[in-house]
């Protein structure tokens, strides 16, 4: 007879333990799992990605429904176990289901701590703990603007970043004087705060919340110092507490959590606890890596395999918020009996600190560059003695690395977790290498899921490969343009040219795509590459474009669209202004806004109204939605300005009329400044033109977005004709060599300014590039006019309920 194992909790810790058990003792157990949420096992670490819009629910599922079926596991979702009959060995749920057990694992997780403030029960006050919380925040962002996150720790900052992405104004309230004080030292925290403030977050530090304001729904938060902050949504991210109610009611010993020994056993026979609900040697862990380590020990115990028992964990934290990399591990605070090695580079935004006690590395903090994280974490866990060579830990011998990652991997035990997101141990990776022939990071990802989520463990996975196979045995696999192929951008484009492939289907078939339908990453890329190589032969595949480009308008968070007509160089006329105003009234546009690119944006337009509005405007599309030339910003230049040296408006209008509708690998913004005072901000644009006495400076590779980058000077020219020639050649060279979705700033840094200069140095080469871009431009049509004139395109904007059955089927 198979032993009956019941798992209470369908979360990451419990299911990881079951995964290990299935590998150690397949077909020996009858397994039943209860989960309170209506979902299969998902990666709670990536909830912030769902909130930020970078992932869907399906993207963060670890084990889908089929996994439970394939492993003959009975799964009850939406069931909360509310009773354990320890004498009859029976568990019961709130929905009346009772199941017997031989071995019971309690992995009930934790509950978010909600501050007991007056008004905490108002509508709009929530935690950030599960998918339902994400959905609540996403819905709130459609109606409300001001969000307050209470808690400046890891979870609070992830919630705040997600809310920023939902276009809410976000203030983070923290009782301490600096952020993430449980994971970072003051220096790293201040660097993090500065970066997040640049992204738009506001911080209210050293604030103690007193009460929540509002009637039925929250309207603000009052502090003990008498100050207040407005809020339509309050997210409490002030910590978690072990979920021990079930254990308490069942006679299981509890303290802060469910008390367990080194083998994760409770005080009652055949009942175990792991995860955030468990307390081991007085510690309840809230990070995923220790919980996976607990699960690995318990799986061996249940399978009858030899194990030394769980000894506790050294924890580490990794945070990536919109490009900000932070890592901390062990004891990072300075104390009288510790010394530290620090490296700080304010120009590159890098800070590193290693804390040493009695010759051993006991903690580390990294900001900006966390490539040393895995190596330092291994040193902390292994207690390596660095006496006499403390500085080499960060600085290395003569500027080199202190010690190779593979050497440090050798000292790791097989149970140590390499991939925290998916609970993959060193032993599991070694097994995949030795038993399944994995020889690359991609192989390991496919076999074990290590590095498949956040990707932060890739360097350590590579170190394990090197440790097992040696440097010569590791297969280096270049990243393909997506997971459907191992071919990179250049190989795909070369094949399109060499084999005269003109459709995406041809490319996928001839180049043997693993997914014959492609994916959301490669389909738009192929459509661009085909159109770039064969502008005359390739028919644009509208279904492969993103929603904004399919509908030729920017979709907003409430499902409406924005319409931005073209205003060349930011110049308009009284007649066009009147027309825009009248049409805004006709279609009841809720918001009319002047953009940063000197145009007028009509926001809140219904999809079915778009063709009618375009027809009434009778103006060309401003392409505010596409991977194309967006706008050419200008100052008044010599037309009116007393400092202007050239006609900036005229030059800007020429450039915009020349290159409008041009599709590029990513969006392109241009500007023309009439003098070096640079009022049009030309030196942070993809292509900037700055007037000087007797000529023009051409600047390239700028970016005014999240990753701010100033331009590099490409060259100086004397005439307007030369500006047009060089700009055309530059844009075509970018079109032909850039990766899809790669901004010019990233492209320039990848291939180098010298490469670009060499490609454009010869006038003959420039003329050849210009001739190719002009061929493409000659085929471009205004999409708004095309949709108005073509009935089959116009139909796609009719509401579904008004379409005939025949047209819907088509």
TrEMBL record:
NCBIfam families: nitri_red_nirB. InterPro entries: BFD-like_2Fe2S-bd_dom, BFD-like_2Fe2S-bd_dom_sf, FAD/NAD-bd_sf, FAD/NAD-binding_dom, FAD/NAD-linked_Rdtase_dimer_sf, NasD-like, NiRdtase/SiRdtase_haem-b_fer, Nit/Sulf_reduc_fer-like_dom_sf. Siroheme binds at residue 679. Residues 417-465, 481-530 form the BFD-like [2Fe-2S]-binding domain. This is NAD(P)/FAD-dependent oxidoreductase. GO terms for molecular function: 2 iron, 2 sulfur cluster binding; 4 iron, 4 sulfur cluster binding; flavin adenine dinucleotide binding; heme binding; metal ion binding; NADP binding; nitrite reductase activity. Pathway: Nitrogen metabolism; nitrate reduction (assimilation). Residues 556-618 form the Nitrite/Sulfite reductase ferredoxin-like domain. It comes from Paenibacillus sedimenti. One of its GO terms (biological process) is nitrate assimilation. SUPFAM superfamilies: FAD/NAD(P)-binding domain, Nitrite and sulphite reductase 4Fe-4S domain-like, Nitrite/Sulfite reductase N-terminal domain-like. Its cofactor is siroheme; [2Fe-2S] cluster; [4Fe-4S] cluster; FAD. [4Fe-4S] cluster binds at residues 635, 641, 675, 679. Residues 316-383 form the NADH-rubredoxin oxidoreductase C-terminal domain. Residues 4-282 form the FAD/NAD(P)-binding domain. Belongs to the nitrite and sulfite reductase 4Fe-4S domain family. Residues 626-763 form the Nitrite/sulphite reductase 4Fe-4S domain. PANTHER family: NITRITE REDUCTASE (NADH) LARGE SUBUNIT. Keywords: 2Fe-2S, 4Fe-4S, FAD, Flavoprotein, Heme, Iron, Iron-sulfur, Metal-binding, Nitrate assimilation, Oxidoreductase. Binds 1 siroheme per subunit. Binds 1 [4Fe-4S] cluster per subunit.
